[in-house]
Amino acid sequence: MTDLQKENLKLWRHYITRILRPTYIHGFLTSFFSPIDTEQILSLEEKSVIKSAELFLDCLLKLEEQGWYRAFLDELRGADYTGLEQAIENADFTEIAKLEEPKKLLERILPTIVSNIKPCEVINFMSTCLRSRECEEIIQISKRKGSTAGAVKLLDCLQRSDKSSIFKEFHLALERCNCSVVTLLLSPDSVEMKTIEENSSNSMSNDVEMHYSEEAESMNTSSPPVSNTEKFQENLIAVENLELRDYQIELAEHVLAGDNTIICAPTGCGKTIVALYISEDHLNKAPKGVKRKVIFMATTVPVYEQQYNLFDKHFKQTSYKVCGLCADKVDSSPVQMLVERNDIIVLTPQILLNCLKDGRIPSLSLFTLLIFDECHNTTKNHPYNVLMKTYMDLKLGPKTSSLPQIVGLTASLGVGDASSLNDAVNYILHICANLDAESLSTVQKNVVELNKYVFVPKKYTRQTTRRRKDPFADIISQMMAQIEAMARSHYNIDNLSHIQNRSHGTQKYEQWIVEVQKKCKVLQMDDIEEERRICRALFTYTEHLRKYNDALI
């Protein structure tokens, strides 16, 4: 370690502290720093990542131990900070510096981005530039706090990235997820305003994707309502005994016959019991000398934890081994070894997807049965659907790989945004096709027994006519006028667009929003901080106006 290298680290302090997240190189901290310094750095990161990185760099420059500099570079490479590692190694931060302008643009248009993307979809197309750990953090934040918080976390990852291709990949991911509002701002030259104006005569349709999940099922629904503790004990008894009712056996028939099947039955009927039965039967019927493996996927961590506990409880009585993979331990776990040593793996679909992408799990053909809990989410860019695309690549590719059997569990497949019976049927068929389902299993022969244990509410549909007077629309329009006035208090937004005559709840108003945001993106003022503040405010106001305008259309 030379004095020149230390001086270089000081010189590049701005870049290093705005990229490095000390928790990602935890191994280096524990190897070279004192426990007190390590604890201070990690605890400070919870409040401010930059301040934590600055403290880390201060401690780093005080090190005198032989070999720490090379160990630091090796740790950066191991933590996938390849861009930063190469920049320090070659004493050349040119590529890192080129990221500054796109990062400033992201900061400016942040309100528009977080309001118009689904982060869990976008990250499916950014695996080469985002770490598995970052993807899992984005997913968990989205689950706990919603898509907006998840999008903020995604942008934080982009702002701290050292990958030269990160923004190109982000742009391509947005295009694949049909986030046209954001891509328009990221590449103004590629999508001209005339494209929108040409379509102004068409009514705007919003593509809404609904993701929903069931409440946790009670495994034994034959008894009157009981306390949560009693319910949990009954669940465990049901799992241990694994005694299926006739309607549950009926639900499993197509699966036991070897078909790819979607099991559709009401919440509370015990679909998890059916899944346990199917899994055990599948493993028991393995031909001599053939090793079968089952994957059970749950879309959320709470459901994953519940289902893992039930699988673990039941299969402890057998010779089959169960393991669970969750976000907080998957990075440090020997995934390939765990998969090889266990018969049943319970996890979230994103973890399986990440392991397939980074090679820790070589192929889906390693498994013989895949069970998708809440399989109605197998649409668009949901991890379930991305996994099934991988499955279809295997199926349609060279016939050298065996295919796992597919089983989906759901209370309802839904109808999407269908407005007619034909559209609803097509939507259901589309879900079935996505899951390569040969059979759709519902209770037909044992409906009376099902109704004894599960209350199925009746649905009534009444058609209504459009209101002649709409006070709700009037209120929203008034709110939009107030927001416009607030925006004008920061900047004269009327000068940012040539569209003057615009009505709330129209495509023309949407055009006005797009044009204002495009002009705001390139707005320049003498005071940089004032420019940043005004642009951030205008993007926030226009995003609220866009949502209200969509509600009126």
TrEMBL record:
Any one GO CC term of this protein is: cytoplasm
Annotated GO biological process: antiviral innate immune response; cytoplasmic pattern recognition receptor signaling pathway
Short name of one Pfam family for this protein? RIG-I_C
Q: What residue stretches are annotated with the Helicase ATP-binding domain? A: 252-431
Q: Where are the transmembrane segments?
A: none
Answer yes or no on keyword Protease: no
The record, for SMART domains, names: DEXDc
Q: Which UniProt keywords apply?
A: Immunity, Innate immunity, Isopeptide bond, Phosphoprotein, Ubl conjugation
InterPro entries referenced in this protein's UniProt entry, alphabetically: CARD_dom, DEAD/DEAH_box_helicase_dom, DEATH-like_dom_sf, Helicase_ATP-bd, P-loop_NTPase, RIG-I-like_C, RLR_Helicase
List the Gene Ontology MF annotations in alphabetical order: ATP binding; double-stranded RNA binding; single-stranded RNA binding; zinc ion binding
What the entry lists under PANTHER family is as follows: ANTIVIRAL INNATE IMMUNE RESPONSE RECEPTOR RIG-I, HELICASE WITH DEATH DOMAIN-RELATED
By what name is this protein known? Retinoic acid-inducible gene 1
What is the species of this protein? Chiloscyllium griseum
Lineage, opening ranks: Eukaryota, Metazoa, Chordata, Craniata, Vertebrata
